[in-house]
Each structure stands twice: as C-alpha cells, then as structure tokens.
Write a structure and sequence with these properties.
With 143 residues, the protein is an all-alpha fold. The chain contains five helices and two strands. It folds into two domains: 73 residues, Multidrug-efflux Transporter Regulator, Chain: A, Domain 2, CATH 1.10.1660; 60 residues. Helices cover 60% and strands 3% of the residues. Strands 1-2 form a two-stranded antiparallel sheet. The longest helix is centred in the C-terminal third of the chain and has 42 residues.
C-alpha cells in the first residue's frame, strides 16, 4: 500500500509517516517505479504500535528502544514492562517537581498579594534578583 492508504488505515497524516521514516521508526518495504513509498501490513501494525506507545506517554526515544520488539509483531509484556516501569518512575518524579513548583507559585502569589495590599509602587519581590547576584527571588520587603 502507498503512504496515503497507510495514513488512512492507521488514522495518522502522511507527514507523521514521513517523519517516522526520517528518524528510523518506520521504513517502507519498497518503492514504486515512480518512487512512491510502499508499505505492507507489518508497517501498519508497527505504526499502530507506535501510536499506542505514544498514547501511553512514551517518547520517540523510548519507542525506538522498543522498536525491535514492535517489529517482531509479538509484543510480550516482559519486554515492555521495564520501559513502562521506567516511564512510571519518570512521571512520578515529574509530578513531585510539579508539586514543588505549585507550592512555590502559591507562596509567590500570596507574597505578591500581601505586597500589593500595602503598596502598589513597591517592586515585585518574587521577580527581583538580589543585588549580590543571587538568582533566588528576594523575600517580601519589610514595611
């Protein structure tokens, strides 16, 4: 099948298929005399597996790691499990960092509101850098 049919059957656009080809995730099985890419049923299966992996939150690099497994068409949980476990750890770490950022933003908003209630002409302490060159935000000014 040509790229248009593969795109339609896999519900992706042609640019995605070309991009996956450029980065080595999906290769045509041949070309027509006119130079059009040809794909077989295995390519459709591989493209569907790539889409499923992306929906699971895997990056293209993580998908590349699974490519030999995906290309074999018999994907076993024992092969996928380590990648999914690493992804879960990364997501948990990201959530922890986002929680810290959320707390920092809440504190910054509270500081700005307190400063604003006292005076609208005082520089925002949240984005003010210390004169010593420290990149940490300055503390709330004293009245």
């Amino acid at each position: 099948m040509r790229i248009g049919e593969l795109a339609r059957r896999a519900d992706v656009n042609r640019k995605t298929i070309r991009f996956y080809g450029e980065i080595g995730l999906l290769a045509p099985c041949g070309r027509t005399e006119g130079g059009y890419r040809l794909y077989d049923q295995a390519a459709l299966y591989q493209l569907q597996a790539i889409r499923a992996a992306k929906e699971a939150g895997l990056t293209l690099e993580e998908i590349r790691e699974l490519l030999p497994i995906i290309a074999g068409q018999e994907v076993r949980c024992r092969d996928v499990l380590p990648v999914l476990e690493r992804k879960l750890e990364a997501v948990a770490d990201q959530m922890r960092r986002l929680g810290q950022l959320q707390e920092y933003l809440k504190e910054s908003i509270a500081t700005c509101r307190r400063v604003q209630r006292r005076s609208s002409t005082v520089a925002c302490p949240v984005l003010t850098v210390h004169a010593e060159g420290n990149s940490e935000p300055a503390k709330e000014p004293r009245p």
